[in-house]
């Protein structure tokens, strides 16, 4: 069953602004990942955060994880038009399993 | 790197026919691959886990006789949609972990858009 829920479902911002997307999940996890999907394409891995980590950075990406609230956020700073895509969080479904359970996704539109 | 390809990228078939979709790991061996389907504006739903040399494991609610999976080599898994119906029209995506690079990250194919008329 789907366990990740992204918020908001859609987000439209101007270039240069920051974009924040949130994800909640229901069960215990070993790690949480964020993926990006351009329209009609496959997914690209962005970043992974382990359950014992609280924050992680990669370039313009910042991910936080709050296991007590079972939630994560993805922040994209100084957004660009090329960041326009759908963003999904994914969790391992049963501790240690390679199977991923995806959230519903946030569709981000960055206007030039 | 870790590149996964899918073929075809899109296919149109008539209702009642069968369609085969291939998923290949191009530069690594994948003993496990995953098949997802994605409806428009929705998320990915895991259909099955494809295991090299053994039977696939299907998620609850997925008909194994309708969605035949064969993982005959370390670089190829195939998904055959049998007796396709319009409701099977969807975007099918495969993924595979490259355990030599990362135990958790999945590498996704570009997807196959199936339209059943």
Low-confidence stretches of chain B: none
Biggest interface and its residues per chain? A-B, 25 and 26 residues
N-to-C SSE string of chain B, H for helix and E for strand: EEEEEEEEEEE
Strand pairing plus helix content of chain B: what structural class? mainly beta
Q: For the residues shown, what is the average pLDDT of chain B?
A: 94
Chain-averaged pLDDT of chain A: 91
Q: What class would the helix/strand composition of chain A place it in? A: mainly beta
DSSP summary: helix tally of chain B: 0
Q: Give the helix level of chain A as a range of percent.
A: under 10%
Strand tally of chain A = 11
Beta-strand proportion of chain B = over 45%
The percent of residues in helical segments of chain B reads under 10%
Straight-line distance between termini of chain A: 37 Å
